[in-house]
Amino acid sequence: MEYPSKLIEEAVNQVSKLPGIGKKTALRLVLHLIKQNEQTTFALTEALNNLRSKIRFCTHCHNISDTEVCSICNSHKRDKNIICVVEDTKDVMAIENTAQYTGLYHVLGGVISPMNGVGPADLKIEALVKRLDNRAEVKEVILALSPTMEGDTTAFYINKRIKDLSVKVSVIARGVPVGGDLEYADEITLGRSILSRTLFN
Amino acid sequence: MEYPSKLIEEAVNQVSKLPGIGKKTALRLVLHLIKQNEQTTFALTEALNNLRSKIRFCTHCHNISDTEVCSICNSHKRDKNIICVVEDTKDVMAIENTAQYTGLYHVLGGVISPMNGVGPADLKIEALVKRLDNRAEVKEVILALSPTMEGDTTAFYINKRIKDLSVKVSVIARGVPVGGDLEYADEITLGRSILSRTLFN
Protein backbone atom coordinates (compact mmCIF):
# COMPACT_ATOMS: atom_id res chain seq x y z
CA MET A 1 0.00 0.00 0.00
CA GLU A 2 1.18 3.54 -0.82
CA TYR A 3 1.31 5.77 2.24
CA PRO A 4 1.04 9.55 1.87
CA SER A 5 4.04 10.07 4.14
CA LYS A 6 7.26 8.28 5.11
CA LEU A 7 6.50 9.06 8.76
CA ILE A 8 3.18 7.23 8.51
CA GLU A 9 4.83 4.30 6.75
CA GLU A 10 7.51 3.92 9.43
CA ALA A 11 4.96 4.20 12.26
CA VAL A 12 2.66 1.65 10.59
CA ASN A 13 5.58 -0.76 10.11
CA GLN A 14 6.54 -0.52 13.77
CA VAL A 15 3.00 -0.81 15.15
CA SER A 16 2.17 -3.76 12.90
CA LYS A 17 5.05 -5.73 14.45
CA LEU A 18 2.90 -6.11 17.57
CA PRO A 19 1.13 -9.49 17.81
CA GLY A 20 -2.35 -9.57 16.32
CA ILE A 21 -2.04 -6.15 14.68
CA GLY A 22 -1.91 -6.04 10.89
CA LYS A 23 -1.12 -3.15 8.56
CA LYS A 24 -4.73 -2.00 8.36
CA THR A 25 -5.27 -1.88 12.13
CA ALA A 26 -1.87 -0.22 12.54
CA LEU A 27 -2.87 2.51 10.07
CA ARG A 28 -6.13 3.06 11.96
CA LEU A 29 -4.25 3.42 15.27
CA VAL A 30 -1.64 5.73 13.76
CA LEU A 31 -4.26 8.00 12.14
CA HIS A 32 -6.10 8.05 15.47
CA LEU A 33 -2.94 9.33 17.20
CA ILE A 34 -2.54 12.07 14.59
CA LYS A 35 -6.07 13.29 15.30
CA GLN A 36 -5.39 13.51 19.07
CA ASN A 37 -3.19 16.18 20.61
CA GLU A 38 0.56 15.57 20.83
CA GLN A 39 0.40 14.82 24.56
CA THR A 40 -1.59 11.62 23.96
CA THR A 41 1.19 10.16 21.84
CA PHE A 42 3.98 11.32 24.14
CA ALA A 43 2.27 9.87 27.24
CA LEU A 44 1.92 6.53 25.43
CA THR A 45 5.52 6.39 24.22
CA GLU A 46 6.90 7.51 27.58
CA ALA A 47 4.97 4.79 29.42
CA LEU A 48 6.33 2.16 27.01
CA ASN A 49 9.92 3.46 27.19
CA ASN A 50 9.77 3.59 31.00
CA LEU A 51 8.34 0.10 31.13
CA ARG A 52 10.98 -1.39 28.88
CA SER A 53 13.97 0.30 30.47
CA LYS A 54 12.95 0.07 34.13
CA ILE A 55 11.15 -3.26 34.32
CA ARG A 56 12.56 -5.67 36.93
CA PHE A 57 11.91 -9.22 37.95
CA CYS A 58 11.52 -10.53 41.50
CA THR A 59 14.73 -12.33 42.49
CA HIS A 60 12.71 -15.03 44.27
CA CYS A 61 9.80 -15.89 41.99
CA HIS A 62 10.91 -14.15 38.73
CA ASN A 63 7.55 -12.42 38.37
CA ILE A 64 7.52 -8.84 37.06
CA SER A 65 8.02 -6.47 39.98
CA ASP A 66 8.79 -2.84 40.78
CA THR A 67 11.06 -3.90 43.64
CA GLU A 68 13.84 -6.44 44.10
CA VAL A 69 11.47 -8.82 45.89
CA CYS A 70 7.85 -8.70 44.72
CA SER A 71 4.91 -7.88 46.97
CA ILE A 72 3.71 -11.50 47.02
CA CYS A 73 7.08 -12.95 48.06
CA ASN A 74 7.43 -10.16 50.62
CA SER A 75 3.98 -10.57 52.16
CA HIS A 76 3.65 -12.06 55.64
CA LYS A 77 0.14 -13.22 54.82
CA ARG A 78 1.23 -15.67 52.13
CA ASP A 79 1.71 -19.35 52.85
CA LYS A 80 5.44 -20.03 52.35
CA ASN A 81 4.84 -23.81 52.27
CA ILE A 82 3.38 -23.90 48.77
CA ILE A 83 4.85 -22.76 45.46
CA CYS A 84 2.67 -22.58 42.37
CA VAL A 85 4.66 -22.91 39.12
CA VAL A 86 3.19 -20.92 36.20
CA GLU A 87 4.22 -19.99 32.68
CA ASP A 88 4.08 -16.20 32.91
CA THR A 89 2.79 -13.08 34.66
CA LYS A 90 -0.66 -13.34 33.09
CA ASP A 91 -1.14 -16.68 34.85
CA VAL A 92 -0.17 -15.18 38.21
CA MET A 93 -2.75 -12.44 37.65
CA ALA A 94 -5.40 -14.98 36.64
CA ILE A 95 -4.80 -17.13 39.74
CA GLU A 96 -4.67 -14.08 42.02
CA ASN A 97 -8.05 -13.04 40.58
CA THR A 98 -9.61 -16.29 41.80
CA ALA A 99 -8.70 -15.39 45.42
CA GLN A 100 -8.40 -19.15 46.03
CA TYR A 101 -4.64 -19.34 46.46
CA THR A 102 -2.52 -17.86 49.24
CA GLY A 103 0.88 -19.46 48.57
CA LEU A 104 3.88 -18.23 46.58
CA TYR A 105 4.58 -18.42 42.85
CA HIS A 106 7.41 -19.36 40.55
CA VAL A 107 7.27 -17.85 37.05
CA LEU A 108 9.06 -19.95 34.40
CA GLY A 109 8.96 -17.31 31.67
CA GLY A 110 7.62 -19.77 29.09
CA VAL A 111 7.15 -23.47 28.45
CA ILE A 112 9.37 -26.04 26.77
CA SER A 113 8.67 -25.83 23.06
CA PRO A 114 11.21 -27.37 20.65
CA MET A 115 9.22 -25.94 17.71
CA ASN A 116 9.93 -22.41 18.96
CA GLY A 117 13.47 -23.23 20.08
CA VAL A 118 12.66 -23.01 23.79
CA GLY A 119 14.47 -25.62 25.88
CA PRO A 120 14.58 -26.21 29.66
CA ALA A 121 17.69 -24.02 29.95
CA ASP A 122 15.75 -20.99 28.67
CA LEU A 123 13.28 -21.25 31.55
CA LYS A 124 13.66 -20.67 35.30
CA ILE A 125 13.59 -24.39 36.07
CA GLU A 126 17.05 -24.63 37.66
CA ALA A 127 16.17 -21.57 39.73
CA LEU A 128 13.14 -23.50 41.02
CA VAL A 129 15.27 -26.51 41.94
CA LYS A 130 17.72 -24.22 43.77
CA ARG A 131 14.86 -22.49 45.52
CA LEU A 132 13.50 -25.84 46.75
CA ASP A 133 16.97 -26.93 47.85
CA ASN A 134 17.47 -23.80 49.92
CA ARG A 135 14.03 -23.62 51.47
CA ALA A 136 13.12 -26.61 53.60
CA GLU A 137 9.77 -25.02 54.49
CA VAL A 138 8.32 -25.69 51.02
CA LYS A 139 6.06 -28.72 51.32
CA GLU A 140 4.20 -28.67 47.99
CA VAL A 141 4.76 -27.56 44.41
CA ILE A 142 1.63 -27.03 42.31
CA LEU A 143 2.22 -27.24 38.55
CA ALA A 144 -0.33 -24.83 37.05
CA LEU A 145 0.66 -25.00 33.38
CA SER A 146 -1.66 -24.85 30.38
CA PRO A 147 -3.16 -28.23 29.43
CA THR A 148 -1.34 -28.25 26.08
CA MET A 149 1.42 -30.41 24.63
CA GLU A 150 4.06 -27.83 25.66
CA GLY A 151 2.57 -27.37 29.13
CA ASP A 152 2.44 -31.14 29.72
CA THR A 153 6.03 -31.58 28.50
CA THR A 154 7.22 -28.86 30.85
CA ALA A 155 5.29 -30.32 33.79
CA PHE A 156 6.74 -33.75 33.04
CA TYR A 157 10.27 -32.34 32.91
CA ILE A 158 9.89 -30.36 36.14
CA ASN A 159 8.43 -33.38 37.93
CA LYS A 160 11.40 -35.50 36.84
CA ARG A 161 13.79 -32.80 38.05
CA ILE A 162 12.27 -32.37 41.53
CA LYS A 163 10.69 -35.73 42.37
CA ASP A 164 13.72 -36.77 44.44
CA LEU A 165 13.40 -33.74 46.71
CA SER A 166 11.13 -34.27 49.69
CA VAL A 167 8.32 -32.15 48.29
CA LYS A 168 4.82 -33.05 47.14
CA VAL A 169 4.17 -32.30 43.46
CA SER A 170 0.58 -31.71 42.32
CA VAL A 171 -1.11 -30.48 39.16
CA ILE A 172 -4.29 -28.39 38.84
CA ALA A 173 -7.47 -30.38 38.16
CA ARG A 174 -8.63 -31.01 34.61
CA GLY A 175 -12.26 -31.56 33.78
CA VAL A 176 -15.35 -29.92 32.37
CA PRO A 177 -15.34 -26.12 32.87
CA VAL A 178 -17.82 -24.80 35.45
CA GLY A 179 -20.85 -23.39 33.62
CA GLY A 180 -20.00 -25.28 30.44
CA ASP A 181 -22.52 -27.54 28.76
CA LEU A 182 -21.47 -31.23 28.94
CA GLU A 183 -22.68 -31.73 25.38
CA TYR A 184 -20.04 -29.31 24.06
CA ALA A 185 -17.07 -30.56 26.09
CA ASP A 186 -14.47 -32.24 23.86
CA GLU A 187 -14.10 -36.00 24.32
CA ILE A 188 -10.59 -35.89 25.83
CA THR A 189 -11.64 -33.43 28.53
CA LEU A 190 -14.87 -35.32 29.22
CA GLY A 191 -13.04 -38.66 29.32
CA ARG A 192 -10.49 -37.31 31.76
CA SER A 193 -13.19 -35.75 33.92
CA ILE A 194 -14.68 -39.23 34.34
CA LEU A 195 -11.33 -40.87 35.12
CA SER A 196 -10.48 -38.13 37.62
CA ARG A 197 -13.91 -38.08 39.26
CA THR A 198 -14.00 -37.05 42.94
CA LEU A 199 -16.37 -38.12 45.73
CA PHE A 200 -19.65 -36.21 45.87
CA ASN A 201 -18.96 -34.74 49.32
CA MET B 1 -7.35 -6.06 37.78
CA GLU B 2 -4.25 -6.07 40.00
CA TYR B 3 -1.04 -5.58 38.03
CA PRO B 4 2.26 -6.87 39.40
CA SER B 5 3.97 -3.56 38.65
CA LYS B 6 3.07 0.15 38.43
CA LEU B 7 5.05 0.35 35.18
CA ILE B 8 2.85 -2.35 33.64
CA GLU B 9 -0.29 -0.64 34.90
CA GLU B 10 0.68 2.73 33.41
CA ALA B 11 1.66 1.15 30.07
CA VAL B 12 -1.58 -0.85 29.92
CA ASN B 13 -3.61 2.28 30.70
CA GLN B 14 -1.95 4.22 27.91
CA VAL B 15 -2.15 1.44 25.31
CA SER B 16 -5.80 0.71 26.11
CA LYS B 17 -6.68 4.32 25.20
CA LEU B 18 -6.17 3.36 21.55
CA PRO B 19 -9.40 2.62 19.67
CA GLY B 20 -10.46 -1.04 19.70
CA ILE B 21 -7.87 -2.07 22.28
CA GLY B 22 -9.15 -3.11 25.70
CA LYS B 23 -7.23 -3.78 28.91
CA LYS B 24 -6.72 -7.44 28.12
CA THR B 25 -5.28 -6.84 24.63
CA ALA B 26 -3.17 -3.99 26.01
CA LEU B 27 -1.69 -6.31 28.62
CA ARG B 28 -0.89 -8.88 25.94
CA LEU B 29 0.89 -6.25 23.82
CA VAL B 30 2.81 -4.86 26.79
CA LEU B 31 3.96 -8.31 27.94
CA HIS B 32 5.02 -9.01 24.36
CA LEU B 33 7.21 -5.89 24.37
CA ILE B 34 8.84 -6.97 27.64
CA LYS B 35 9.80 -10.31 26.08
CA GLN B 36 11.46 -8.59 23.08
CA ASN B 37 14.75 -6.76 23.35
CA GLU B 38 14.75 -3.09 24.34
CA GLN B 39 15.38 -1.90 20.78
CA THR B 40 11.99 -3.16 19.61
CA THR B 41 10.20 -0.90 22.05
CA PHE B 42 12.45 2.09 21.40
CA ALA B 43 12.03 1.80 17.60
CA LEU B 44 8.26 1.74 18.07
CA THR B 45 8.12 4.74 20.40
CA GLU B 46 10.56 6.74 18.29
CA ALA B 47 8.49 6.18 15.15
CA LEU B 48 5.34 7.35 16.97
CA ASN B 49 7.07 10.38 18.51
CA ASN B 50 8.55 11.37 15.14
CA LEU B 51 5.21 10.93 13.47
CA ARG B 52 3.33 13.04 15.96
CA SER B 53 5.83 15.88 16.18
CA LYS B 54 6.85 16.12 12.51
CA ILE B 55 3.61 15.33 10.68
CA ARG B 56 2.52 18.01 8.19
CA PHE B 57 -0.47 18.60 5.98
CA CYS B 58 -0.41 19.64 2.32
CA THR B 59 -1.32 23.34 2.08
CA HIS B 60 -3.40 22.67 -1.04
CA CYS B 61 -5.41 19.51 -0.38
CA HIS B 62 -4.85 19.13 3.42
CA ASN B 63 -3.81 15.51 3.03
CA ILE B 64 -1.00 14.19 5.25
CA SER B 65 2.33 14.95 3.58
CA ASP B 66 6.06 15.02 4.24
CA THR B 67 6.40 18.23 2.25
CA GLU B 68 4.55 21.56 2.11
CA VAL B 69 2.75 20.49 -1.06
CA CYS B 70 1.99 16.79 -1.32
CA SER B 71 3.20 14.55 -4.14
CA ILE B 72 -0.26 14.34 -5.72
CA CYS B 73 -0.80 18.13 -5.82
CA ASN B 74 2.76 18.55 -7.12
CA SER B 75 2.52 15.92 -9.86
CA HIS B 76 2.35 17.05 -13.50
CA LYS B 77 0.56 13.84 -14.40
CA ARG B 78 -2.56 14.62 -12.37
CA ASP B 79 -5.63 16.19 -13.95
CA LYS B 80 -5.97 19.64 -12.36
CA ASN B 81 -9.55 19.99 -13.65
CA ILE B 82 -11.11 17.59 -11.13
CA ILE B 83 -11.08 17.68 -7.34
CA CYS B 84 -12.31 14.70 -5.36
CA VAL B 85 -13.58 15.64 -1.88
CA VAL B 86 -12.99 12.94 0.76
CA GLU B 87 -13.30 12.59 4.52
CA ASP B 88 -9.74 11.61 5.40
CA THR B 89 -6.38 10.18 4.34
CA LYS B 90 -7.63 6.58 4.40
CA ASP B 91 -10.13 7.48 1.65
CA VAL B 92 -7.38 9.03 -0.50
CA MET B 93 -5.38 5.80 -0.12
CA ALA B 94 -8.43 3.69 -0.96
CA ILE B 95 -9.20 5.69 -4.13
CA GLU B 96 -5.53 5.75 -5.17
CA ASN B 97 -5.50 1.96 -4.83
CA THR B 98 -8.26 1.67 -7.45
CA ALA B 99 -5.97 3.38 -10.04
CA GLN B 100 -9.19 4.77 -11.61
CA TYR B 101 -8.74 8.41 -10.66
CA THR B 102 -6.10 10.84 -11.90
CA GLY B 103 -7.41 14.16 -10.53
CA LEU B 104 -6.62 16.03 -7.31
CA TYR B 105 -8.07 15.59 -3.83
CA HIS B 106 -9.44 17.74 -1.05
CA VAL B 107 -9.34 16.19 2.43
CA LEU B 108 -12.03 17.55 4.76
CA GLY B 109 -10.61 16.00 7.95
CA GLY B 110 -14.01 14.60 9.00
CA VAL B 111 -17.72 14.88 8.26
CA ILE B 112 -20.43 17.05 9.77
CA SER B 113 -21.69 15.23 12.85
CA PRO B 114 -23.69 17.23 15.42
CA MET B 115 -23.71 14.16 17.71
CA ASN B 116 -19.91 14.32 17.95
CA GLY B 117 -19.80 18.12 18.02
CA VAL B 118 -18.32 18.46 14.52
CA GLY B 119 -19.74 21.40 12.57
CA PRO B 120 -18.87 22.76 9.09
CA ALA B 121 -16.35 25.18 10.63
CA ASP B 122 -14.29 22.25 11.97
CA LEU B 123 -13.76 20.93 8.44
CA LYS B 124 -11.78 22.26 5.46
CA ILE B 125 -14.96 23.33 3.63
CA GLU B 126 -14.16 27.05 3.43
CA ALA B 127 -10.69 26.11 2.21
CA LEU B 128 -12.35 24.17 -0.61
CA VAL B 129 -14.54 27.16 -1.56
CA LYS B 130 -11.46 29.39 -1.57
CA ARG B 131 -9.55 26.85 -3.64
CA LEU B 132 -12.36 26.77 -6.24
CA ASP B 133 -12.54 30.58 -6.25
CA ASN B 134 -8.83 30.91 -6.97
CA ARG B 135 -8.53 28.15 -9.53
CA ALA B 136 -10.62 28.71 -12.62
CA GLU B 137 -9.26 25.48 -14.16
CA VAL B 138 -11.32 23.26 -11.85
CA LYS B 139 -14.29 22.01 -13.86
CA GLU B 140 -15.68 19.30 -11.59
CA VAL B 141 -15.91 18.45 -7.89
CA ILE B 142 -16.59 14.81 -7.03
CA LEU B 143 -18.08 14.29 -3.57
CA ALA B 144 -16.71 10.89 -2.47
CA LEU B 145 -18.11 10.75 1.08
CA SER B 146 -19.37 7.68 2.91
CA PRO B 147 -23.01 6.82 2.18
CA THR B 148 -24.04 7.51 5.78
CA MET B 149 -26.24 10.15 7.41
CA GLU B 150 -23.15 12.25 8.26
CA GLY B 151 -21.62 11.81 4.81
CA ASP B 152 -24.88 12.78 3.11
CA THR B 153 -25.31 15.83 5.35
CA THR B 154 -21.78 16.97 4.55
CA ALA B 155 -22.27 16.41 0.81
CA PHE B 156 -25.54 18.37 0.95
CA TYR B 157 -23.86 21.25 2.80
CA ILE B 158 -20.89 21.40 0.41
CA ASN B 159 -23.18 21.31 -2.63
CA LYS B 160 -25.19 24.23 -1.22
CA ARG B 161 -21.97 26.17 -0.58
CA ILE B 162 -20.46 25.70 -4.06
CA LYS B 163 -23.43 25.30 -6.40
CA ASP B 164 -23.27 28.99 -7.44
CA LEU B 165 -19.68 28.64 -8.61
CA SER B 166 -19.35 27.55 -12.24
CA VAL B 167 -18.26 24.02 -11.40
CA LYS B 168 -19.95 20.68 -11.95
CA VAL B 169 -20.70 18.79 -8.71
CA SER B 170 -21.01 14.98 -8.84
CA VAL B 171 -21.25 12.16 -6.31
CA ILE B 172 -19.84 8.63 -6.57
CA ALA B 173 -22.33 5.98 -7.72
CA ARG B 174 -24.33 4.00 -5.20
CA GLY B 175 -25.59 0.52 -5.94
CA VAL B 176 -24.98 -3.15 -5.31
CA PRO B 177 -21.30 -3.91 -4.61
CA VAL B 178 -19.43 -5.77 -7.37
CA GLY B 179 -19.18 -9.44 -6.43
CA GLY B 180 -21.96 -9.13 -3.86
CA ASP B 181 -24.97 -11.43 -3.99
CA LEU B 182 -28.18 -9.53 -4.87
CA GLU B 183 -30.09 -11.59 -2.32
CA TYR B 184 -28.04 -10.12 0.52
CA ALA B 185 -28.06 -6.46 -0.58
CA ASP B 186 -30.12 -4.31 1.81
CA GLU B 187 -33.37 -2.95 0.40
CA ILE B 188 -32.30 0.72 0.37
CA THR B 189 -29.17 -0.04 -1.64
CA LEU B 190 -31.05 -2.36 -3.98
CA GLY B 191 -33.89 0.17 -4.41
CA ARG B 192 -31.43 2.91 -5.25
CA SER B 193 -29.54 0.67 -7.66
CA ILE B 194 -32.80 0.27 -9.63
CA LEU B 195 -33.59 4.00 -9.60
CA SER B 196 -30.03 4.87 -10.65
CA ARG B 197 -29.81 2.16 -13.33
CA THR B 198 -27.56 2.91 -16.29
CA LEU B 199 -27.82 1.81 -19.94
CA PHE B 200 -26.38 -1.65 -20.64
CA ASN B 201 -23.60 -0.34 -22.92
From TrEMBL, chains A, B:
<comment type="similarity">
    <text>Belongs to the RecR family.</text>
</comment>
<dbReference type="InterPro" id="IPR034137">
    <property type="entry name" value="TOPRIM_RecR"/>
</dbReference>
<feature type="domain" description="Toprim">
    <location>
        <begin position="81"/>
        <end position="177"/>
    </location>
</feature>
<dbReference type="InterPro" id="IPR006171">
    <property type="entry name" value="TOPRIM_dom"/>
</dbReference>
<dbReference type="InterPro" id="IPR023627">
    <property type="entry name" value="Rcmb_RecR"/>
</dbReference>
<dbReference type="Pfam" id="PF21176">
    <property type="entry name" value="RecR_HhH"/>
</dbReference>
<keyword id="KW-0233">DNA recombination</keyword>
<keyword id="KW-0863">Zinc-finger</keyword>
<keyword id="KW-0234">DNA repair</keyword>
<keyword id="KW-0862">Zinc</keyword>
<protein>
    <recommendedName>
        <fullName>Recombination protein RecR</fullName>
    </recommendedName>
</protein>
<dbReference type="Pfam" id="PF02132">
    <property type="entry name" value="RecR_ZnF"/>
</dbReference>
<feature type="zinc finger region" description="C4-type">
    <location>
        <begin position="58"/>
        <end position="73"/>
    </location>
</feature>
<dbReference type="InterPro" id="IPR000093">
    <property type="entry name" value="DNA_Rcmb_RecR"/>
</dbReference>
<dbReference type="Pfam" id="PF21175">
    <property type="entry name" value="RecR_C"/>
</dbReference>
<keyword id="KW-0227">DNA damage</keyword>
<dbReference type="InterPro" id="IPR015967">
    <property type="entry name" value="Rcmb_RecR_Znf"/>
</dbReference>
<keyword id="KW-0479">Metal-binding</keyword>
<dbReference type="Pfam" id="PF13662">
    <property type="entry name" value="Toprim_4"/>
</dbReference>
<comment type="function">
    <text>May play a role in DNA repair. It seems to be involved in an RecBC-independent recombinational process of DNA repair. It may act with RecF and RecO.</text>
</comment>
